[in-house]
Amino acid sequence: MSRSVLIVDDDPFIRKLIATTLEDVAGFELVEAADGVEAVDYATAHPPAIVFLDVNMPRLDGIGAAAQLRALPGTEATTIVMLTAAGAERERAARDAGADLFLTKPFSPLDLLRLVDEIGGSA
Predict the structure, then answer these.
(1) How far is CA 34 from the centre of its chain?
(2) DSSP secondary structure code for residue 25 in this structure
(3) Residues 6 or more apart from 65 whose CB is under 8 A from it?
(4) Is the pLDDT assigned to residue 107 strictly greater than 80?
(5) Structural domain includes residue 119
(6) Measured between alpha carbons, how far is residue 102 from residues 24, 44, 45, 56, 85 in Å?
(7) For the residues 66-85, what does the mean pLDDT come to?
(8) What is the DSSP string of 64-83?
(9) Domain that holds residue 73
């Protein structure tokens, strides 16, 4: 597994916020995808250490993408962090699909850094 972080959100501003916040953290390579289809395509060839995955996206939403990511060879140890403003029902569905952690939108860069620091040692 690579030391990459896959940032998946249909909002380019959110992707940029996460990438800018993490650009100097722990030697991770940062990769962006605009939807779940792009995320699964990338992870098939390059299983990432961490995936930040928006719940609501076109083509393939975050819950569907999480399930597909969990089914890929080499992603067993990938930490999937759902980016969500959704309620408890969607969080349950995401957890059932394989999500490990949740980061509620809107989030601060400090929250993001803390989360990556917590999981960085195991990624």
Answers:
(1) 12
(2) S
(3) 8, 35, 36, 37, 39, 40, 53, 57
(4) yes
(5) no
(6) 22, 23, 25, 14, 10
(7) 92
(8) HHHHHHHHSTT-TTPEEEEE
(9) 4-107
- CB-CB contact of 66 with 37 (8 Å): no
Predicted confidence (pLDDT) at residue 68 exceeds the cutoff of 50: yes
Q: Token pair 């289809």 is at which residue?
A: 37
| CA 119 to centroid of chain Cα atoms | 12
Q: Which run of H or E residues covers position 31? A: strand 29-33
DSSP state of 28: P
How many domains in the chain?
1
Flag whether 91 is in a domain.
yes
Q: In this structure, what CATH number is given to the domain that contains residue 25?
A: 3.40.50.2300
Q: 3-class SS at 29? A: strand
- Residue with the bigger pLDDT between 30 and 91: it is 30
Please tell me the pTM assigned to this model. 0.91
8-state DSSP, 60: S
